[in-house]
Design goal:
Helix 1 (12-28) links the parallel strand 1 and strand 2 (34-40). Helices cover 48% and strands 19% of the residues. The chain has helices at 12-28, 44-47, 64-71, 83-87, 91-108, and strands at 2-8, 34-40, 53-56, 78-80. By secondary structure, the protein is of the alpha/beta class.
């Protein structure tokens, strides 16, 4: 199971996003493949040892470089969520993006 942490400022909007992602995972029969956790960006330290990917809300784009550097020693990829997908709470688009990124990573090994 791949664990993905979604962060936003207070954890509220990422919580709505994670809920929609979980619903879409259930529709696709993929609940055993991925776990999406939504938290505030200030809680990253608590999850850094247990996640496989970090997704940042588009409103926190300015934090991308700092979070990427922080996650580098842990080999955790960091991405900003597409603004349109985030705004629409499009769980399917986020799942597709995550799957694509994991496939790209596997092809690089």
């Amino acid at each position: 199971m791949k664990k993905i942490l979604i962060v936003c400022g207070a954890g509220a909007s990422s919580g709505f996003m994670a809920k929609n992602i979980r619903l879409e995972l259930k529709k696709r029969g993929m609940t055993a493949d991925f776990e999406f956790i939504a938290r505030s960006d200030t809680e990253l330290d608590e999850y850094i040892d247990s996640i496989d990917m970090l997704l940042i809300g588009p409103h926190l784009r300015y934090m991308l470089q700092g979070m990427t550097e922080y996650c580098k020693p842990y080999h955790i990829p960091v991405y900003v969520i597409d603004q349109n997908a985030y705004g629409a709470l499009d769980g399917g688009a986020i799942i597709d993006f995550v799957i694509q990124k994991f496939k790209e990573k596997e092809n690089c090994i």
